[in-house]
Design brief:
Strand order of the largest sheet: 6-3-2-1-7-10-12-13
Order of helices and strands: HHHEHEEEEEEEEHEEEE
Distance between the termini: 24 Å
Strand content: 15-25%
Structural class: alpha/beta
Helix content: 25-40%
Amino acid sequence: KKRQRTRKMERKKELRKYIASLKTRHEDSDMRKLQSAKVLAALEAHPAFRAANTILLYHSLKDEVDTHAFIRKWSNKKRILLPVVVGDDLELRIYSSPEDMATGSYGIEEPTGEVFTDYAAIEFIAVPGVAFDAKGNRLGRGKGYYDRLLPRIPSAYKAGICFPFQLVEEVPADSYDVRMDIIITSNEDELSHPYHPLPSCDR
């Protein structure tokens, strides 16, 4: 079992390295803007997003689908929460305006507003990741922040948000890992659906 776990860790490390090399190839900012816009258009058209009032988004780093303008846009219509790194955990705070943001850990802009702990009220989560697969498995950056946070919010609809090259054949996963309900990406093939509904799994 220990050998199996070590092998899984190795595969995760290799996958992170592989995606990092693809990210440098996709560094063209215009292309990234265009793809981000497509992903976010698919996200805001999704019925679960439209129906939700309280939504947990993420303030993107430069190698992620760019959510900055999207957060501002929707904060007038919905209650938007953003994660804040506190030690080994993610604390959630309500986003109010760009003025109430401060640079936190890892250079991520974080809201300084009130802490939000009513996890049951969260209806939709946009989850960033290094890679996702068609089964809804997610590979994070390896710090485990979302692995610890997501089990606290079991009833929310979870959408993995990524660029097309981050959708891979298989993400090494354990039975306790929380799967996404959907992966939303901008697909270059216009004939395909902009998001990938996943087969329902008994969770």
